[in-house]
Amino acid sequence: MIPKYKSKAQAQVFLSATPVIFTVGLTLVLILLLPLDPPSEIKELENTEVEVGSTTVLKCSSTGNPRPVYSWSYYQDANVYVKNEDGVSLLHIRHASANNNGSYTCKASNSFGNVSKTVVVTVKGKVNIMHYSR
Prior knowledge:
This protein has 1 helix and 7 strands. It has one helix spanning about 10-15; strands spanning about 50, 55-60, 70-75, 80-85, 90-95, 100-110, 115-125. A hairpin with a 2-residue loop joins strand 4 (about 80-85) and strand 5 (about 90-95). Pfam families: I-set (PF07679). This is Ig-like domain-containing protein. It comes from Myripristis murdjan (pinecone soldierfish).
């Protein structure tokens, strides 16, 4: 409550001498320092047999900090695609054919190194060969 003063000068002296209390907001930042590591040995990627016309998925996973980035080497064909999700890389082969026989290499890389693993996909079963006549 501000008291009544006889003049403006008395009121100004009172207001300028009144202490002001500030509330200071405090932000606490917690920084976790995790060890920096190259990618670990690739897990879950194994040689695979698949029937002609079937679908199979090759799964490549590794750990490291920062999180590894994946790349694949294989014979490129229209029925093969790669999807990376949740720290793993999945190579899908749909409607497998003789073209999908062979080696598939997954490479996991980060700024501290890389690791790779090669497996073999074998397509089994009778392959239908279509002959066209003109």
